[in-house]
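We treat protein structure as text, and this decision shapes the records that our systems exchange. The tokens are whole numbers drawn from a learned vocabulary of local backbone shapes. Below, we set out a record of this kind in full and without editing:
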Amino acid sequence: MNREVLKIAFSAFFADLGYQAVVASFPLLLVFYFHVPVYVYGVVESFSYGVGLFFSFMGGLLADKWESKKVAVLGNSLIIILSFTGVARDAIQAIALFLTGWFMRNFRSPARRKMLVEVTDESERKSAFGVLHALDVMGGMLAIAYLATFLYFRVPFSAILPFTAVPIVVSTLLLVFTSKGKRIESKGTNLRVVLGVLFATALFGVSTYSPGFPIITVTQSTDQLYLGALTYGVYLGSSALFGYVFSLVRIDEFKGLTLGYLVSALASLGFVFLFPFKALGLYPMVFLLGLAMAAAETFEPTIISKTIGQNVGRGMGYLSLARGIGYFVGNTAMGILYSLSYSYAYAFAFAVSMASAFIILFIRK
């Protein structure tokens, strides 16, 4: 890894070290502190991804028209709004602060991915995206560790979340000091592959749902808030581990992506049957969900960067747009189905994830 890749990757580390504590706190704040029904949380999550997808698309578009570094720095600096969620006086304030900061996170992501492409050669892309994802979620895992510790000792959210602003500031400074990369040479666009990956990504988004649902499931199964928060730590820890593994192993991107989608399907099916076993049964399924997300975050952008042509920022925006559409549909469906039965929600996720795997198998031929 060259120095600029590491700056970008450690910027991701510090960003997640801050805002992922807010992400894990958000369902707990709404459902268990402000006593909002689970289906309302599902609608809010759908809204966050549904509207957020337009911010992602605009971020990717501006990364091509303006400059990827400027867009990434602007979006990253405004993620700090998430840190004020903990001081919200009611559910409406919490939702407004969370959504605003989350939209800025979406705005930044395609531009940051383009920055990574600009400082690497094509042969380095899989390793670079794997390292980016590994450090990204490693920061999130540490965020969940300190959040769960504070919650165990009953420290209030209002005393925890404002301090998440500090690592977000560090993250932004690392992007500021990252050197601009080279101009991307166009090799043409493989439209069949690009459209196939985008469609599969959208379906995977439908099947993936928000990590808040496993957090709620484990909390309901164990009746312990800190075990619910630790769910996200298991997920992020697995995702960090396999992001690094995928950066090292020599595996075809299409095979790796298919594997990730299939593992996600298996994990969702596991939630249907293992609820009575509490954390002992559910944590391994969360671990598999982390593996699946690492595969998606490593192989999806790698394939797009190699097949989209010169407009990489726009391609990354389309990728975020496709995932956002999937999240919008998926979280609404999960919220409604979960209100009927958790087993209906996870069975739905299993079926859709299987469909995304078959699409990748089809376009690979």
User: Anything to note?
Assistant: DSSP finds 13 helices and no strands in the chain. The radius of gyration is 19 Å.
